[in-house]
Design brief:
alpha+beta; single chain; about 300 residues; about 25% strand; eight-stranded mixed β-sheet
């Protein structure tokens, strides 16, 4: 019934829905909620590694992240969660909680540029929000989650290594190219260049960037995007267009898996991109919804 009411108001009176919203079931996460939210995320520690990493940040630091996370509470039990930062990520939501979260998001300041996560949850949440948000740049409705648990069967590229700060000027154009190809906009438009440079520098200093550099040219790069005590997620994989199809990506990813297991040996699972078709296990589908209102 809540869903029918929301959809009816979306069609009949969209302007006033923001003020009609009933938020009694949704509230910001409190520090005392961390264990309950973590238990929900641990139902799938691989797919939920990003939220788990943010919860770890909140547990280990004095500064607060609770305004990024909202919870759906039923009789004092947290049933569902939505992360609302640069991305919106639904966690264990159902039809009832998605209606409530949609209302809550419409009443909150808009920060996210994308909705990312489980295919069913993302598409259903987007159907509730799309009457009020701009047309999306892209909907990727089928992105498999792939995991490698053991050493790769392919031979790793011995020239792939952890990047160091002196590589920054060489790596930065490759990072910009990868981002632009993936998202569709440059990360260094206008005043964003210094912010993006600082981010890449931080990733390098954290020993989370891996690259092969031949004669001042990046021929492969990848980075650790998220790390928890169980999972290490690889992202930002890139090979120059002129070198694609020559196994730089396959051998490079094999090397990254080996290096990740060496430097971050406590991580048992490594979600990867689609480079190990014969060696990884597919555990599910995610959907990425990119929106043009607030670009990454």
């Amino acid at each position: 019934r809540q869903r029918e009411s929301l959809q009816l108001w979306a069609k009949v009176w969209p302007v006033n829905l923001r003020y009609w919203s009933n938020n009694k079931h949704v509230r910001p996460m409190l520090r005392t909620d961390i264990d309950q939210v973590r238990n929900l995320a641990l139902k799938d520690p691989i797919s939920n590694c990003f939220i788990l990493s943010r919860l770890n940040d909140l547990s280990n630091n004095s500064w607060s992240l609770q305004n990024e996370i909202s919870v759906f509470e039923n009789n004092k039990e947290i049933e569902s969660v939505v992360y609302n930062g640069a991305n919106i990520i639904p966690l264990e939501t159902n039809e009832e909680s998605r209606v409530a979260f949609a209302q809550y998001l419409l009443d909150s300041p808009r920060r996210a540029s994308s909705i990312v996560g489980d295919k069913t949850q993302v598409l259903d949440l987007w159907n509730l929000l799309k009457p009020f948000w701009n047309k999306p740049r892209e909907i990727r409705s089928n992105q498999p989650v792939l995991v490698i648990n053991d050493a790769p069967l392919l031979s790793p590229d011995p020239l792939v290594r952890p990047a160091v700060l002196r590589d920054l000027e060489i790596l930065l154009p490759a990072c910009v190219s990868m981002f632009t190809e993936e998202v569709g906009v440059s990360p260094v438009v206008g005043s964003s260049e210094q912010i993006y440079r600082a981010r890449i520098s931080e990733v390098i200093q954290q020993r989370k960037m891996f690259a092969r550099i031949d004669q001042s040219q990046v021929t492969f790069k990848a980075e650790i995007g998220v790390a928890t005590d169980q999972v290490c997620q690889i992202q930002g994989v890139w090979v120059p267009p002129q070198l694609r199809g020559r196994d730089y990506g396959k051998a490079g990813m094999a090397a990254v898996v080996d290096l990740t297991r060496k430097y971050f040996h406590k991580y048992k699972n490594t979600p990867t991109t689609d480079y190990f078709k014969t060696e990884v296990q597919k555990i599910g589908d995610v959907t990425l919804q990119q929106n043009v209102v607030q670009q990454l």
